[in-house]
Structures are given as C-alpha cells and as structure tokens.
Amino acid sequence: MSLKRPYLTPRKYIWRDADGKETPGVALTRGDEIKAHLTPTEARTMADKLHDYADKAEIGTTP
After folding, report:
1. What is the tally of structural domains in the chain?
2. Is residue 15 part of a domain?
3. Would residue 4 count as lying in a domain?
4. Which tens digit of pLDDT belongs to each residue from 36-46?
5. Which of 34, 37, 44, 55 is deepest in the core (most CB within 10 A)?
6. What is the pTM of this model?
7. CA 7, CA 9: separation in Å to the nearest integer?
C-alpha cells in the first residue's frame, strides 16, 4: 500500500476568535482545513527549527 506524505501549506491569515479578537499570523493548512495558526514570532521560531532539522536530515544526524 502506498500512502501520500502529509503536506501542509503556509499562508498569511488573521485568526478571529469567538470574542472577535484578531491575531495576525500564519495558518498551516491541509486542503481547506487550518491545522495550526502561528503568530509571526511563533512562525519565525518554527522556521528556524525546521531549517535546523532540514540541515540535520541532509547530513543524516539525529535531532
């Protein structure tokens, strides 16, 4: 059986909660579904970590 790798797409998104508070940031989506929402600071932190893990994956080291 062959499964497709799960994939997330980032996009600029303003999260609006039930009280109407808006939080600008980045949504990570899969299809039409938002899987996560990150503030700009959280998105930068995640990007740094992803970059570090990508470097480690290329050279075959463990996290």
Report:
1. 1
2. yes
3. no
4. 999 999 999 99
5. 37
6. 0.80
7. 7
